[in-house]
Amino acid sequence: MKFIDRLFEKSARSVAQRSSRRGLLKGLGAALVGSAVIPLLPVARAADNHKLPQDADAGDPSSCDYWRYCAVDGFLCACCGGTYNSCPPGTEMSPITWIGTCRNPVDGRNYVISYNDCCGTTQCGTCLCQRDEGDRPLYRADKSNDVNWCLGAKSSVYHCSTAVVVGLGFKQDKE
Ligand code: ABN
Question: Which of 91, 97, 124, 131 might form a disulfide with 120, Cβ 3.0–4.6 angstroms?
């Protein structure tokens, strides 16, 4: 027992000789600040491993039956020189939009779709598509898709509509 006591005493003395009280306080302070800062570091907390389907994956984007168009009302930009999620050259995407939720038939999940209008040249006139899922009459302006979103763009002239996936919907139990 005495041997162990002596061993600990010796090592404690040698540590005390090599370090100062100030150094010990500094180390403790750094550890305290460090442990408080670590939880604040940027972490993708909401990250969902599920990848958003931005590539055309199921169906024909120039057909009104395409899954992303479930709540659209307008001319499909995919028929007007653009794609389902980009505007034709020479037009500008509206910064304000109508939002819908559509089911992707490939993975059976719901996705939040933003129906941005493309603005700046006269209406495209091809592939008129009106699916209107979740649409309410115009007197419920906040719930109606029958709105020219170009009113929020530089030019209020409507050309066509896109369907941009902006998020993953909640998982629903099978009915
Ligand atoms: N959001 C499509 C649209 C444009 C103009 C008028 C009605 C609907």
Answer: 91
Q: How confident is the model at residue 8 (pLDDT cuts 50, 70, 90)?
A: confident
Q: What is the pTM of this model?
A: 0.69
Query: Is residue 156 in contact with ligand 1, taking CB distance under 6 Å?
Result: no
Among 131, 148, 157, which is best to mutate for testing ligand 1, by the most ligand atoms less than 8 A from CB?
148
Please give the Cα distance from 18 to 5 (Å, whole number): 20
Helical (H) or strand (E) element with 33 = helix 21-37
Listed residue (106, 109, 95) closest to 152, CA to CA? 95
Per-residue model confidence (pLDDT) at position 76: 98
CA-to-CA distance for 153 and 67, rounded, in angstroms?
Answer: 27
Residue 103's identity, in one-letter code, is R
Active site residue 117: yes
- Distance CA(122)–CA(156), nearest Å, equals 10
Tell me what the pLDDT averaged over the chain comes to. Answer: 83
pLDDT at res. 47: 43
Helix %, strand %, coil % of the chain (to 5):
30, 20, 50
Q: What is the pLDDT of residue 42?
A: 43
